[in-house]
Amino acid sequence: MPDGRRLTSSESTGVRAAGEGVSEAALDAAIQNALQGLKALQRDDGHWVFELEADATIPSEYILLNHYLDEIDDALEGEIAGYIRDRQNEGGGWPLFHGGATDVSCSVKAYYALKLVGDPVDAPHMQRARAAILAAGGAAKSNVFTRTTLALFGQVPWRAVPVMPVEIMLLPKAFPFHLSKVSYWSRTVLVPLLILMSLRPKARNPRGVGIEELFVTPAWQETEYFQTRDSLSGVFLGIDRLLQVIEPMFPRKARGKAIEKAVAFIVERLNGEDGLGAIFPAMANAVMAFDALGYAPDHPHRAIARASVDKLVIRRPGYTYVQPCLSPIWDTALAAHAVLEAGVPETATPALDWLVERQILDLKGDWAENQPGLRPGGWAFQYANAHYPDVDDTAVVVMALERADSARYAKTIERGVEWIAGMQSSNGGWGAFDVDNATEYLNHIPFADHGALLDPPTVDVTARCVGMLAQCGHDRTEPIIARAIAYLRSEQEADGSWFGRWGTNYIYGTWSALAAFNAVGEDPAAPHIRKAVGWLESRQREDGGWGEDGATYWPESKDACKSSTASQTAWALLGLMAAGEADSDAVARGIGYLLASPRDGARWEEDWFTAVGFPRVFYLRYHGYSAYFPLWALARYRNLRRGNARTTPFGL
């Protein structure tokens, strides 16, 4: 079948989702077609990069940034506005993920962006949006980041925002709040924001657009901008009220020194066109901070920061939006695993060589604050982000290299393993970017109302590290793995599943844990493995697939599911096969679902968001997930069945 042709369920003959058998011919045809599609998407230098999509917040913030600076591009913003309108839900607001409920913060920014580009307030979609926002309590109920944007635009008083003075830059590490105690993403977003929150510049907003109609109580009369979440947050709110009074009295000399230190932090990490932290919010804040400090648009620092923001714009016929960041290392490593599983190493080799060139060997990033004696050796998530290598990416890259050619890539693998081993936290787990970044009380400060200030160890990242270490020859009795296994076991939910921090949700976490246990030789008959298998089987849907909604990150919606998806089905299948269930009816039915599902070349149809940036706050749709994960699952199923094997020897 020619590459790119869409397969419909009626064309995927030979497969019955009820588990009556999987046709070898249909399996081979699907793998071959998906492989051809994936190869067609590979870049000339060997790597893959797929679009990375979030909710309407990032495109809206891009428009807001342009109007803040008076750098308006009507044609481009008009295209982005079309994307934003298309994401409005039936209730009139904007959700955090496809099919989700209205989120007031996202909705306020989307509404403001549309009004800035000229949408009339009496247009039906704007009326519906306004009604949804007011029903949710109005713009005053939006989160701290949104209220900070509104303060910069003069739409709320600065007392609506917690006090975060730039003098934070001068605090010693022993102080209860220090930059090293928060996550990398918080650090890079916060430092330029400290400059803005201290200088309090006002957006140019040349068209004078405001959103006073989104407040239940007029913004300057509103007194309930902060909510007491618990006793500890109440204490921090009291401290904030004190800071509101005394901040204007802070010495000017100290403020000037703190701003200098903040600027030095930003400039050191500007990262060329890949941007500060290589994430949109940090980049946008850097542009505004430079502007507030009087840097001209053509100043090299401000110009490169602006270029990094514009690099995230995706302009396609019919839709234009802005990505939160780029994901080439992650996409390339995972696609390489799928290709290797499918038995085409010659396609993987250029990708792996490309990855080798991007290992970070010379720069000690922020992670070295807690591990100063450790040699660097990791990989970032983006094209370039040397200060912030990603533990998860590094483990996945190393496993692909070891699987493809352990001799050829021996030195690269050795440095990657060394860095991962040194990044283990004290509880036996691994976080994504830092060691022991788990100062929990900081999630109770007013600024942290999103609850995502920290980067503590998680099951999925830990599982990847265990799988990598085991695949590279480390034994389960070694302390580093023994401690990690104990951590994984301790994190299992009562129903047998594991929480998924970076993928949605328990399916992702459970697959990750089962892959790690398989890699270290855990007995598939062990009670915790059987319980996990039972949970996965119980979550299989009538169509043979698996799915899980973004709402599962709220405790009251743990079982939420609207549809099966190809990527989540692939995770469930890979998890079951890691537990020795390749011959089970559940696996056969899942394979049947994938073979019967609509597909266009490499990618299965999948509008749902199956990943997460921050649970309950920020969700992601990796456009590559519906390409490489299903291919990987199909190829593994074929390999195990033809090899008469129970499970795989690899860490993933």
Task: Provide a descriptive summary of the structure in words.
This protein is mainly alpha-helical and 652 residues long. The protein has a domain at 53-211 and 227-322: Glycosyltransferase, CATH 1.50.10.20. Helices cover 46% and strands 4% of the residues. The protein is built from 22 helices and 8 strands. It has helices spanning 24-40, 57-69, 74-86, 104-116, 124-135, 144-152, 184-199, 231-246, 252-268, 280-292, 300-310, 328-341, 345-356, 391-405, 410-422, 459-471, 479-490, 506-519, 527-538, 566-578, 585-596, 625-643; strands spanning 6-7, 52-53, 313-316, 319-322, 599-600, 603-604, 611-614, 618-622. The strands form 3 sheets. It has a 3-stranded antiparallel beta sheet. The protein has a 3-stranded antiparallel beta sheet with strand order 2-8-7, with no helix packed on it. A hairpin with a 2-residue loop joins strand 3 (313-316) and strand 4. Helix 4 (104-116) packs antiparallel against helix 5, helix 12 packs parallel to helix 14 and helix 20 (566-578) runs antiparallel to helix 21 (585-596). It is globular and about 70 Å long. The two termini are 30 Å apart. The relative contact order is 0.12.
